[in-house]
Amino acid sequence: MAIDEKAVAALADRMLGPEHKGLPPAAWGRTVRDFLDSAPHLDEFETPVLTVDRAAVAANVAVMADWAAAAGVRLAPHGKTTMAPQLWAQQLAAGSWGITFATVWQVQVARSFGVGRIVLANALVDPVGLRWVAAESARDPEFEFFCWVDSVETVALMEQHLTGDARIRVIVELGGPHGRTGARTVEQAHEIAEAVGRAERLTLAGVGGYEGALAHDRTPDGISAVRHYLDEIARLHRELAAAGRYPEGAIVTAGGSAFPDLVVECLAGLADEQGVPTTVVLRSGAYIIHDDGFYAGISPLAAPRSERPLRSAMHGWARTVSRPEAELALLDAGKRDLPFDEGLPVPQFVAGPEGSLNPAAHVSALNDQHTFLRLPGGAAGDLPVGSVVRLGLSHPCTAFDKWRLIPVIDDADAERPRVVDLVHTFF
């Protein structure tokens, strides 16, 4: 599925300035292309800085593309993870069926870069957004757009705000007890599908949901809850297909980045069943960056659970600015710079040829602009002021949203990483 490659390439012609956190002042007033031509290294940047590892991204994209193909499902990775058209382009080039988003504004950003097939994994009842989608679909008949409906009221509101020849394909969302959005029972979902069938401007395109809201770990109870939920999605799809509710084939979609194996186990077979042509779509988004925290602990594609594991492609780099106590170092990165909602950063090593790190070192807290790095049993001379620490991070979704421009380095493990690209984000 397409993206406007010229629009993505044009990002290299954007001007750099002080609004781009972490970039050296020597880059200001230059284009991205011109600055990269100077072959900069990471140690020329200011701290704090977030980086992306080029080789890890490429490997992760290939791992997920191959895994999905072998499983018989399609990928529509969640673009809100990175909000980076340069990275969406890599995913689409590797065979992704489309890109998923969470808000109509994110959809509008994607359309400005020519993304041709989009799943809005949310209900769309905003009148301005609905009219924009209708107009965009009329302007470009090849644009494919799908969004959620999870109540009869949602169907009525969409019908109220759409006019003329506008027609939008919708996916009935099935939720779960104490989950997020979505009809709470299969029976309620049938009522929604019936309402869509009566609507003049909506077309039922499939069923879907999000299993990640029902479990936050891979305990037996968590796995059981996810499996039961996905089985209910499969049941709903089969019943709607048997009732002749799909006028144009069907999409069955689920999947965050925590339980893609269970989505495949429970839903992939629907694509092979006789009757309504069915595409099973997995919406995992975090895999392209992965992490050293939450997803490293739960993803079935992480080491050591996978023979071909995903790798963390993001790291924070922060400088020691204060050593007020023998067992405490303050770094110059904080909540404004690094994610903290799914676990605190983990110190990995001290940058430079002679750096060393206390094996017991750990982060105990983040303030807005400081990291509290504890050094149990440390001495006053450990980690002197000015030392740069590489930090492993958890949850790419809340890392990327803190940076307008992210340096891409050739090797995060190198003694002196080289900056080979700059990724623009749109949050």
TrEMBL record:
Organism expressing this protein natively: Nocardia vinacea
Sequence ranges assigned to domain D-serine dehydratase-like in this UniProt record: 313-410
InterPro entries: D-amino_acid_metab_enzyme, D-ser_dehydrat-like_dom, D-ser_dehydrat-like_sf, PLP-binding_barrel
Pfam families recorded: D-ser_dehydrat
SMART domains linked to this entry: D-ser_dehydrat
Domain of life: Bacteria
Name the record gives this protein: Amino acid deaminase
